[in-house]
Write a structure and sequence with these properties.
- There is one protein chain.
- About 2% of the residues have low confidence.
- The two termini are 44 Å apart.
- Among the domains are: 87 residues, Rna Polymerase Sigma Factor, Chain: A, CATH 1.10.1740; 83 residues, Tetratricopeptide repeat domain (Serine Threonine Protein Phosphatase 5, Tetratricopeptide repeat).
- Helices cover 68% and strands 0% of the residues.
- The protein has 19 helices and no strands.
- With 396 residues, it is mostly helical.
- The chain is globular and about 70 Å long.
């Protein structure tokens, strides 16, 4: 793995660990960035444990910085304490550094977008552009929210600590959102190659930790089921040459049957609770996709109707339209899609292009593909759309 790959894979874990050690997120970020700068100069090849090397180096850089800036006795004392405490005893119900950091960043004093944007940046290692894409908002908006969140944490003295067990449920919605978005960024990366396996696996791991921490929260179980069932299909999602393979064309023999079985069992647990929520319904949709040799589209559409009632967003409506096309035909789906407004979201014109192609409206489909290609930021997705457009014009 090259240094850029190591940065993406290890940044979040290193910042979380250093924040626990330092108690200061700004200092932790700077120390980790300094350590990576040192790595650029010193590494001929990565050490056996690059994350451990970064944490150790960052910790030492932080100690040096605290000593240099120690104009007050307290700063020097902090440096001495940090030097002596290699691994402070962890306390509280959240023992995983990254999961604990997620709960900390999801403090109710911060706005919902600030919570998730800050956590995605710190733990997922996502760039501002990637977070903006996940939220369908301008990059400047995300950047400002992150800066304001850090300032509010500093000025309000919000502690980086494990929340009490009683406080965990109030932060659950934001934590679920963060894990969901981290996985989505891994499953369809904003730029470069289609999939970032490190983010997918990390989101699944943290979702498992969360479900174990809060076994009585149906949405925590639902999110884990959703991620497992989606992750199960990842091996079939990329072809031999790295090309995107859509669900209908995937080789189902490549799907991970163990993850599917586990996901189905979690969905059944959710159904027995009869407390439906958005993640549980999405998990149920994915359970239908992974049940049997073909998708039961009427059942998927019924579940999307329920999901749209719970989460009436344009993105859910767009996904529902795909099921409408399979059940009622492309004309009905196109009528639903044409009512949606999702500026900058390439999947809207991409879906329109597919529906128009099925209706034989070639010229309009080509124009829709052109719009989708212009908006797509991921190289693999753009190549896929370009191939569809080329095939359409060649057939015409």
């Amino acid at each position: 793995m090259d240094l850029d790959g190591i940065y993406r894979a290890e940044y979040g874990r290193c910042v979380a660990t250093l924040t626990r050690l330092l108690g200061d997120i700004g200092l932790a970020e700077e120390a980790v960035q300094d350590a990576f700068a040192v790595a650029v100069q010193k590494w001929d090849e990565p050490p056996p444990n690059p994350g451990g090397w970064i944490v150790t180096t960052a910790r030492n850089r932080a100690i040096d910085r605290l000593r240099r800036e120690s104009t007050r006795e307290a700063r020097h004392a902090q440096a001495m304490l940090l030097q002596q405490a290699d691994e402070p005893q962890e306390v509280g119900p959240v023992r995983d550094d990254q999961l604990r950091m997620i709960f900390t960043c999801c403090h109710p004093a911060l706005s919902p977008l600030a919570r998730t944007a800050l956590t995605l940046r710190l733990l997922g290692g996502l760039e501002v552009a990637e977070i903006a894409r996940a939220y369908l908002v301008p990059e400047a908006t995300v950047f400002q929210r992150i800066v304001r969140a850090k300032k509010k944490i500093r000025d309000a003295g919000i502690p980086y600590r494990v929340p009490d067990a009683a406080d965990l449920p109030d932060r659950l919605a934001s934590v679920l959102t963060v894990l969901y978005l981290v996985f989505n960024e891994g499953y369809t990366s904003t730029s470069g190659q289609l999939v970032r396996t490190d983010l997918c696996l990390e989101a699944v791991r943290l979702a498992r930790e969360l479900a174990a921490l809060m076994p009585d929260e149906p949405e925590a179980i639902g999110l884990l089921a959703l991620l497992l069932l989606t992750e199960a299909r990842r091996p079939a999602r990329v072809g031999p040459s790295g090309e995107l393979v859509v669900l209908a064309e995937q080789d189902r023999s490549l799907w991970n049957r163990e993850l599917i079985a586990e996901g189905h069992e979690l969905v059944r647990r959710c159904l027995r609770r009869d407390q439906p929520g958005p993640y549980q319904v999405q998990a149920a949709i994915n359970a239908v996709h992974t049940d049997g040799p073909a998708t039961d589209w009427p059942q998927v559409l019924a579940l999307y109707d329920q999901l749209l009632h719970l989460t009436p967003t344009p993105v859910v409506a767009l996904n529902r339209a795909v099921a409408v096309a399979e059940v009622h035909g492309p004309a009905s789906a196109l009528a639903a899609v044409d009512e949606l407004d999702l500026p900058g979201y390439h999947l809207l014109p991409a879906t329109r292009a597919d529906l128009l192609t099925r209706l034989g409206r070639t010229a309009e489909a080509v124009a829709a593909y052109d719009e989708a290609i212009a908006l797509a930021t991921n190289d693999t997705e753009r190549t896929f759309l370009q191939a569809r457009r080329t095939r359409l014009t060649a057939d015409g």
